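[job 0417] fold request received: DUF4382 domain-containing protein
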Amino acid sequence: MKDMLRNKILSIPFAFFLAAAVFFTGCDDNGTGSDGSMGTMTVEMTDAPIDSADAVNVFIERVEVQAQDSEGEEGEWIVLSEPQQSYNLLELVNGATEVIGTKELEPGIYEQIRLILSTNGHSVVVDGTEHSMMVPSGAQTGIKLNINAEIQSDIEYVLLLDFDASRSVVAAGQPGNAQKYLLKPVIKASEKAITGNIEGVVNPADAQPVVYAIAGSDTLASTIADTTSGDFRLIGLEEGSYDVSVNPRVDSYQSATVEDVTVQTGKTKDIGTVELNQQ
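[job 0417] inference complete; emitting structure tokens
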């Protein structure tokens, strides 16, 4: 896989997914709560992993949301947070998340969120060598995602951003020491309150398994199982039925699939132990 990342140029466009939002009541015609109290938006980030890199570091300057005005038109951008720091996406796997912003907001509809990335400070580590990553565009105007979130008085709205590292890191130029990498963020946004999770254990753990949640022909979540315990956790899944595919990175083991795993909102489905057979 590392050779594939070094030698193949991936032409992946920005792919932002619109998540379903839970709509609340309790707002007056001006979009403010009838009792004048505020709501809260919290943004958490997680990662769909890449097994061909040792680290993927992304520097986030600001997180902003855009309000909808009383006439339904696009409003001002509001700064949710200013992290001014780098995040290693490969540390945010197997159910781990990082809060990158939280703020009290006036009740109402917030149509978009955007991440303002630095023009530099991004890097990928491949085979122990760190390579800088350039953002081709979007650093100035931000990486925008539609969320259509409605904030209610005294309610915390938690937004989960799944940063797909495997599709966001793009190799360009000639392989070798002069290999160049681009950062083209592919992010899925979902409201945490209306999603569920799948967890389990892969045996043996030293098969170094990657676990995928698949609905139809679409892979909607992935993670690398813990290489010591074999534990895994797939988060941010909408309610529905999934096939859980376990693919070992050690060639002496066979893949396995658990079919028709049902996910319910607000719950974690434990599928137990998935045994991998040797070739």
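[job 0417] notes: Residues 2-185 form one domain. The two ends are 20 Å apart (CA to CA).
[job 0417] exit 0
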